[in-house]
Write a structure and sequence with these properties.
- By secondary structure, this protein is of the alpha+beta class.
- The chain has 2 domains: about 130 residues, no CATH class; about 140 residues, no CATH class.
- Helix content is about 50%, strand content about 15%.
- The strands form 2 sheets. It has a 5-stranded antiparallel β-sheet, with helices on both faces. Strands 6-7 form a two-stranded antiparallel ribbon.
- The protein is elongated and about 65 Å long.
- The N and C termini lie far apart (about 55 Å).
Length: about 280
């Protein structure tokens, strides 16, 4: 099966690899000046669409490539940065067994759990629920995602080193550790115990600011040995990925930023309370 998948992926990637090789040579030779930017962006969009068509691991790989200025020309970086980690959620009847295998019957663990997901991403999805009268967010891995990830990582490790050597022989020495770093990052993202530890760190870091007029994040009903499930107590029940671009009134510690994987939506009281955060 891995061989069949490898052949399928290789056929999909050949056209975009050929275009990237040509564009990268031109980009380096002309130092990014006087290039046909529309063509560059068109070729970058082909890579983006190919990543989407090949599934979760390749979506993650495309996102990861969008930060590699040592590999891709600038127009490619900008186009791949638009790659969204948003895909249709799996049906709830596929998700229910994952939850109940980890923590038991849903009816016994929750007052209520919404079968319609709030959002779906390449590796997991989230659902709104109520536990002991409190709104919580339940985050669950996609069914069968571990096997799919492992298979596609093997495919990537076979194809990408060969492809990068074709794009630029100078990359043949650096691409293997780069690929291992990517594999480590996706394994870490799939381990929800690490995310749970990060959330606990956020809660600990925010203790000095308990007198603030808003609640940033707290955790409840923690299951430290569960890798498929964790639930977060949310003020609004809406999860948003952190955005660190642009100006912000909030200045917080590096440890808080580094430890967070998700922020909950904030209201305008954040601006008023931000004055109590340490300035750096």
């Amino acid at each position: 099966m891995v061989l069949v998948r490898t052949i399928h992926v290789f056929i999909k990637l050949v056209p975009v690899i050929l275009a990237l090789r040509k564009d990268r040579i031109l980009w380096i030779a002309q130092e990014g000046k006087g290039i046909d930017e529309k063509r560059f962006r068109r070729n970058a969009q082909r890579i983006l669409n190919t990543c989407i068509s090949l599934g979760p691991v390749f979506i993650k790989f495309g996102q990861w490539l969008s930060s590699r200025a040592d590999i891709l020309p600038q127009p490619y970086l900008e186009e791949l940065s638009k790659l969204q980690d948003s895909v249709p959620a799996a049906p709830f009847d596929k998700v229910r067994p994952i939850i109940e295998k980890d923590i038991g019957k849903i009816e016994e663990k929750f007052d209520d759990l919404d079968q319609n997901s709030l959002s779906g991403a390449s590796l997991g999805q989230v659902h709104r629920a109520t536990k002991n009268g409190q709104q919580v967010i339940v985050k669950i891995k996609r069914p069968g995602i571990e096997k799919q990830v492992e298979k596609d990582l093997k495919v990537l490790m076979k194809i990408i080193p060969f492809a990068m050597k074709f794009v630029d022989p100078n990359l043949r020495f650096s691409i293997i550790p780069i690929m291992k770093q990517f594999a480590d990052s996706i394994h870490e993202e799939m381990d929800y115990t690490k995310e749970l530890d990060n959330l606990k760190k956020i809660k600990k870091n925010m203790k000095p600011y308990n007198n603030a007029s808003f609640r940033i994040l707290s955790t409840s009903c923690l299951y430290p040995f569960v890798k498929n499930f964790n639930d977060l107590e949310a003020r609004s029940g809406v999860l948003r990925r952190p955005s660190l671009s642009g100006s912000s009134p909030m200045r917080t510690s590096n440890s808080l930023i580094k430890s967070s994987m998700f922020y909950l939506s904030f209201d305008n009281k954040l601006k008023k309370a931000s004055k109590s955060f340490p300035q750096q």
